[in-house]
Design goal:
Rossmann fold; 3 domains; Leucine Aminopeptidase, subunit E, domain 1
Length: 547
Amino acid sequence: VEYLTNIGSKDLKVIEKEYVKDNAKIRIRHDEFYAPEKLKNDIELRINSLLSSLESITFECMPLYYDIADKAILHLKNIAHKNHCGCELKLKKNLKSYTIPKAMETLSTTSLVSRSLIKQSELFCSSPVICQQAKSSNGSIEVLIGDIAVQKSGALIIPLVSYGLKQSLIERAGNIIRQEQQVDKSKKTDKSDNNSTPFFIETTASNLVCKIVLFSSWSPLEATMNDDSLREHIRNFISKSIEYIIVKNEQSNIKIESIAFAAPDSCKKENILAEEMIYETKRQIELTKSSLRISFILLPDQQTLYYQFLTAIQKMQSNDGVHAVFSCPITNDFKNWNQYMINTFYKYCYDRCVLPKTDDDKRIRLIGPINNVYDAKYKYHLTNVLIQEKIHLQQLLPTTPRPRPIIRSQITDSISIMSSSICYNIMLSYCQEDSIISQRLADRLIDEGFSVWIDLIESNDTFSQINKSECIILCISENYVENKFSLNTVEYAKQMGKHIILVKVQNYTSNDWLQQLIPNEIYFQLFGSENHFDLQYDKLLLKIVSI
């Protein structure tokens, strides 16, 4: 019936049209049709003939990264529809964790970091799919940025925060019910002690995916506290929170195996807050021999506090070769790579639905759409070659130091002096219409430690800057080629024997004087998507460092 309703609907309409004068009516969804008695057998035979060649095939797919599987389902449905086939596909998913390798930092690798590389690394590490993890002898501790309301933890613990999290959770949870409080009656407290003892209100989770929610009166307000008092105040909150959950497990049928803490936002001494929360959590797990998995969830705008938590948890991580863990629905190692490079490569893969897995023999396996896998493989090899070239340059620099000129941008009309162990003299020649992408390229090159002169083709001192530069990058576009000063710039650069690199900043087919003047030269295409720009930039960078 489902096949006839969807795929065979056109054929059924043809049959119905043939017998329309006989008042025949086919209601296949109701598994019936109306027709005169003399036509019953004929129409039934025609319908059965549509099903005579029908075959049903059931198959299972190998586990795939979720985004890949999702796209594969759409592709299969499209193929089935074109070939008049019914297709029922069910996508089952589960969250699986994969580790990001930890870099073996050396003096040579730590000096190969540009600001853009750091930015890409930090962007990846602060995404919701990434968490920093430290394992204790029993349980574990994680730090991640995300939405605490969607955490699949047994208990959510919400301290007193100023950004309306309590009210937001109550609204999203729906009809929550306040539960009987667990109170430690054995402890007598005075007024001053009450200030540091957290008070919990337990509620049901209702529409949330957790089991219970604990709203606490605790807040890390340190106005009247010295550092020691603040540390004790934080330790007390963590210990009482974990104690509450352990007692809950002992006294009720609800078994809680994980806790998610919302990070407070009202503590100015964020380093103390992060350190004590992490260290006391670890101490409590080991003291109680608990197997609890404990997470600290931060908001995207709590970046400063997030990095304090990362610093604290990284000090606890064992030397097991794991930098972080990233979760997604389901050659050589990274020798000479620093952590920023590894993180950026994993981000590159993740953005393209490619899953990098390191085998036991330390070889990297890439799983994903074939074209994206080829891109990721090329990115990996390109990065490896770049690292080797930069290390080679570093070894040469002490004996053959290069001059370090002043960098001047005529776009901003400002002068900056760049200090770096690797310094080249590069001149970017561009036209005014392409200033945005040209400045972007210049910024990336400056981040790498190069000295860059950004030069409009109409500028008066173009020739003098060509004399000072070792490499000339031409930002090619239709406007650049048509400008009358461009020809003079290129001819003079060739006359002076300078290295000339052609960079297309516009999708423009060159068939003019430039091809005649510089024949058979490779163009680096920096127009298009961000992903395309990054890969082309790496190729350009390799060209520059190999000159």
